[in-house]
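Narrative summary of target 7.
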Amino acid sequence: MLRIISWNCQGAFRNKLDNILELKPDILIVIECEPIEKLKFGKLLPVPNDCAWYSDNGKKGIGIFSFCDYKFELLSVHNAEFRYIIPFRVFNEISSFYLLAVWAMDNKANPLVSYIGQIWNAVNFYSSLFKENCIVIGDFNSNKIWDVMERLGNHSSVVEFLQAFNIVSLYHHYFAECQGEESFKTFYLHRNQTKPYHIDYVFASESFISDMSALQVGRYEHWIHLSDHVPIIADLSVPSRHVNYNCSYLDFVSQDIDSFSVVFKEKFHDEIEELKAKAIKTDSLEYDKSDLYQLLANFKKLESIYLEIL
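Modeled conformation, tokenized:
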């Protein structure tokens, strides 16, 4: 089994290392993690086999740590537009899978893409990754109870989108509870036990889930002195093969193109070939990836419009 733990530590992780490592994670995702150079592993604390840290402000970000033989690679197709929804390839000699580490945030400039709106855009963008073994994990800052809020997409639409790729919430699978009706909470507003919410999740491809799979939610009284979140602990089956993806922009774009309808590909054949050519230029650093991403998004919109008028 592979133990994956996600925890929003609410900062100052260097003072909380020993608490979370007592849970013996194989892979640990830490939200609101400070820079790795501030952490002090060693002596009584195991040194990670590999680690990565991403931040867009140099202060707090997402830290990911391996205490087994898995290592991490930030995918070249990472799109910083989604801030802290970070795609990694997790790999060892035997197998590999994709992991999207999530810390959904507010967007005061465009509230429609705050929180779940941010995740909705990201899962659509990274959808080609979901054809392989994939885990989407972290602080979603979301729950079905807030579906009525005006966002681009909502919690239920994200759940349904992932389910179409056979990616399911391990909590709801394990406890047989419905979205929005969670008995165990993961977040306590202002650390107040009377204001609990379930907003942290582990979504995993069905290939990770077996009769031995399990999910635990940390208890309020054990963690509230450290953070307003409690950790989620997932025990998953280990995948038995490598993902079939070379992390190139051409491959990333091609998988989306393959999902286009036959009639659309025939109608816009020349334009699609030009899109592929620009992906090749992006791989050779001759074309800006943000321009490529915008072009691909335009193609997706164009296809949806084209199919509606057929």
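DSSP finds nine helices and 14 strands in the chain.
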